[in-house]
Amino acid sequence: MSKTDTPIQKQPRLVSIFAVPGVQLLDVAGPLDVFAEANRQCTGRKPIYRFRLVSRSAGPLTCSSGARLLPDATIEDRREKVDTLLVAGSPHAGETHLDAATMAWLTASARTARRYGSVCSGAFLLAQTGGLDGCRVTTHWSVAGALQAAFPKLRVEADSIYVRDGRVCTAAGVTAGMDLALALVEEDLGREVAMNVARELVMFFKRPGGQMPFSRRGQVELSGRSALQESQRWIAAHLRADLSVAALASRAGVSPRHFARMFRGELGVTPADYVESVRVDAACRLLEEGTDAPKQVADRCGFTNVNGLRRAFMRCTGITPAEYRRRYRGESSVG
């Protein structure tokens, strides 16, 4: 194992993770293990990072898995300045309302921290303080829409693994907290140390693609007025049909310009981008569950040819159809 020399700091940087009852264990343990490994990879006389798990009150914190964590401090303990503040998520974070004392602690800690953010659905908790307003953020793909609806001042990037916007750093679901922590280690200690941490923890140094390969866009509920919902049903059921704006507008009984404006205004995407995402989602299901050759997948999903499928797949997922099938089917190639 290689170690890297790093300048000696007077005091280790304090990484505080705030957690609520029902916290997802890996939202806490994943980032901490990345920072801890960074300590091991450096040969300074003192650790680069030290850690503190903070909760609303004293006593064991029961995780969503049933495991229990013992916090190091409560929100009443304000003796030390936080360098990096992360708010961990939980399966019920979207329904959790913070009390005034917790809000005040998070606000004050974020204001004085060098950087702050969240892991997974922890964004719902941090957003309640207003500390994410106007910022680019991400969260788990399954609740990204709900986060945007609940906090319209946020700019939610649903496909990102992690997002850095100034002092604000947010990660997508669960293991993405480790990707974010690794990026912060690289920022602090350089590429070599971060690469050594990734090798030791057997993780990607830079994970390819975004969250879309893990989501199922076809399961998203229909949106917009009834005419648009009918268009969405038609698109999903007729992937090989002419799904141009002109054709869809004709079916809806409006002009192409009006249809495009109405579609984007209510769904937040252009008709062309929506059609492409539905076709790619259908291709994902075929690649996961079927044995069709790429040419057949492209034809069944309405793509002109295999190259069209590949280009759309790369735009939506960041990886090729071949790589997608390898990940989800364990196959060596798709052709």
TrEMBL record:
<keyword id="KW-0804">Transcription</keyword>
<feature type="domain" description="HTH araC/xylS-type">
    <location>
        <begin position="229"/>
        <end position="327"/>
    </location>
</feature>
<dbReference type="InterPro" id="IPR052158">
    <property type="entry name" value="INH-QAR"/>
</dbReference>
<dbReference type="InterPro" id="IPR002818">
    <property type="entry name" value="DJ-1/PfpI"/>
</dbReference>
<dbReference type="InterPro" id="IPR018060">
    <property type="entry name" value="HTH_AraC"/>
</dbReference>
<keyword id="KW-0805">Transcription regulation</keyword>
<dbReference type="Pfam" id="PF01965">
    <property type="entry name" value="DJ-1_PfpI"/>
</dbReference>
<dbReference type="InterPro" id="IPR029062">
    <property type="entry name" value="Class_I_gatase-like"/>
</dbReference>
<dbReference type="InterPro" id="IPR009057">
    <property type="entry name" value="Homeodomain-like_sf"/>
</dbReference>
<protein>
    <submittedName>
        <fullName>DJ-1/PfpI family protein</fullName>
    </submittedName>
</protein>
<dbReference type="Pfam" id="PF12833">
    <property type="entry name" value="HTH_18"/>
</dbReference>
